[in-house]
Request: fold
Amino acid sequence: MKLIKTRFSYAALIAFITLIAATFATAQGPGPVDYSKTEIKATKLSDNFYTLQSVPALQRPGGTMGALVGPDGVLMIDNQFGPLSDKIVATVKTISSTPIRFMVNTHLHGDHTGGNENFGKMGVVLFARDEVRNRLAGPLANGPYGTNGKPYSAAALPMITYEGPLTFHMNGEEVELVPILRAHTDGDTLVRIKNADIIMCGDFFRSSGYPNIALAEGGTLKGMLEGLNYLIGIAGPNTRIVPGHGEAVGRADIVAHRDMIVAIRDRVAQMVAQGKTVDEVLAAHLTSQYDVRVPIAKETADRFIGQVYSELKPAK
Reply:
């Protein structure tokens, strides 16, 4: 999706941001999606931890999932769209003989929670931040994220919620759930698989595309930078960092990503201080020096700049 290079109002930008969100993060939103040709691929990252991804990528890309397997059962991080639940279960059975017992939602969006109801009905215990349950239980602020504004069913709601860090001790691992405050959304969780030295971020870090600050769901630029700084602080030289979308990276990549956000923020702030409109800021192409190294840059740059402008522009 490409932004039309004409002048438009700030209200039109917000409508555009909402449309972009609908395109990239819907679970079963408008328009048919053919799930029949999609398979779920498991990639082994350690003796007992795997990532799971859609292959080929859907026209509405689903988030990366994780699975800790072993004799204590399977702990999963996120799921994707409801129609893929059976395929996810089938793939998990190829890497584990034990059932899925627990599932963590890293945030509310349907490309990470669209299968909640199916897994809940299987008896899987769902975990998430309080904010995630509260948003899923009520009309979603941004309807295109999988429910068209309707609440999730009771079976799809996380059964156990938390405000502070939470730790699983299973399959020889310590798995820490760490709340990341008001970053991509107001309900993000970082998942740290300590012994394996793997961290899953959900969508407050993506290696594919520019950052997405979901303003309608409580996301903030400040919180995203704080989350990235925390991630940099706990990551070691060999830590594998699995984003919500895109390929796994190392600590140095997170530092470069954080520095890019800061540089773009400062440029937007300078233009805001000069009284520039959002149209003028977008026309300046402030991401141009980074576009070559950011996958799907064209599709996500204007969305990100618009979100930064919205946060930095003083309220009237």
Summary: The domain at 10-256 is CATH 3.60.15.10 (Metallo-beta-lactamase; Chain A). The chain has one domain: 10-256. Residues 96 and 311 are 45 Å apart (CA to CA).
